[in-house]
UniProtKB/TrEMBL annotation:
Presence of keyword Transferase: yes
Transketolase-like pyrimidine-binding domain mapped to chain residues: 2-174
Keyword terms, alphabetized: Transferase
Pfam families: Transket_pyr
Keyword Lyase: no
Highest taxon of source: Bacteria
UniProt organism field: Streptomyces spectabilis
Name the UniProt record assigns to this protein: Transketolase
MF GO annotations: magnesium ion binding; transketolase activity
Enzyme class: transferase
Length: 310
């Protein structure tokens, strides 16, 4: 199976052909995949070199000129390093664009901590108006990318601010995502587990045989409060577990806000704050952060208690 990032350049090349508003801004990373698009659209596929602040600034400048910019590099270089430009060039100037990241939390362990960004969604949470999409499969990545760009067949035109978080971690099969709502994958009465993006397969394995509702979230901002309230209201327990592929607890405030008038408990599971200083492999990092199915099951049942056991 191809990866989410494998889909990125072909999808964007088609969107560049379809819509003269669309532009792509790169900072060396990913340039090879856009060689044909650069020849076809030299004024709308721009490589700024290894200058991440300029990467974001150039994208905002294209938005000011009336284009729909899609800005791409590794998450650590896209969200963390040029954060001031995201805050000012897009936010303060009141323009929209699409940030598309790669590498995610620990997709490339050999790159070390400089190439990891488990805090990216949390950082964007400090800003107003950013939609955040976390696909769990390449097919979902294509759907959510088109939704975020807001152009192409069937898309609703958009000038909003959006972040699309691509990962090489993937679920085995795609779900029918729409860029808005959480999906109900499994129903139960002993609590609610929200699986974000590529965490779904791990959560389904971890909760096999448990009497819990599993919600699948690929668009986490705006947070689908209605779906969570419905899921909690359908059960006997207002206990919620969030399993996110980035910093643990990133969405606990959103879940608490959704249930502000309902007695409830929330447990946020995800990537820990402590830096893992050995490269290892992705599976090693998943286990170290307690995101493998066996550890998730222990943590989920420990929190939900006897009511979760069928």
């Amino acid at each position: 199976m191809d990866t989410m990032r494998d889909r990125f350049a072909p999808v964007m090349t088609r969107l560049l052909d379809e819509d003269p508003r669309v532009a792509v801004v790169l900072a060396e990373i990913g340039v090879d995949a856009f060689k044909e698009a650069m020849r076809a659209h030299p004024d709308r596929v721009i490589n700024v070199g290894i200058r991440e602040q300029l990467l974001v600034g150039a994208g905002a400048g294209l938005a000011l000129a009336g284009l729909r910019p899609v800005v791409h590099t590794f998450a650590s270089f896209l969200v963390e390093r040029p954060f001031e430009q995201i805050k000012l060039d897009f936010g303060h100037q009141g323009v929209g664009g699409v940030l598309v990241s790669a590498a995610a939390s620990f997709d490339w362990p050999e790159g070390g901590f400089t190439h990891m960004a488990p805090g990216d969604v949390g950082v964007l949470d400090t800003l107003d108006g950013w939609a955040v999409h976390v696909p769990g499969h390449p097919d979902e990545a294509e759907t959510l990318l088109r939704h975020a760009v807001g152009t192409g067949a069937g898309a609703v035109p958009s000038d909003d601010k959006a972040y699309v978080r691509l990962s090489v971690q993937s679920n085995a099969a795609p779900m029918p995502v729409d860029g808005k709502r959480f999906l109900t994958v499994r129903e139960g009465r002993g609590g609610v587990v929200v699986a974000v993006g590529p965490m779904l397969d791990h959560v389904l394995a971890a909760t096999e045989g448990l009497d819990v509702t599993v919600l699948y979230a690929t668009t986490v901002r705006p947070f689908d409060a209605d779906a969570l309230r419905r899921a909690v209201g359908a059960g006997t327990s207002a206990d919620v577990v969030l399993v996110e592929p980035y910093l643990a607890g990133t969405s606990t405030a959103a879940a608490n806000d959704a249930l502000v008038d309902v007695p409830h408990r929330v447990l946020g599971l995800g990537v820990g704050r402590a830096e893992l200083r050995r490269y290892g492999r992705q599976d090693d990092h998943l286990r170290a952060h307690g995101l493998d199915p066996a550890t998730l099951r222990t943590r989920i049942t420990g929190f939900l208690g006897a009511g979760a056991r069928a």
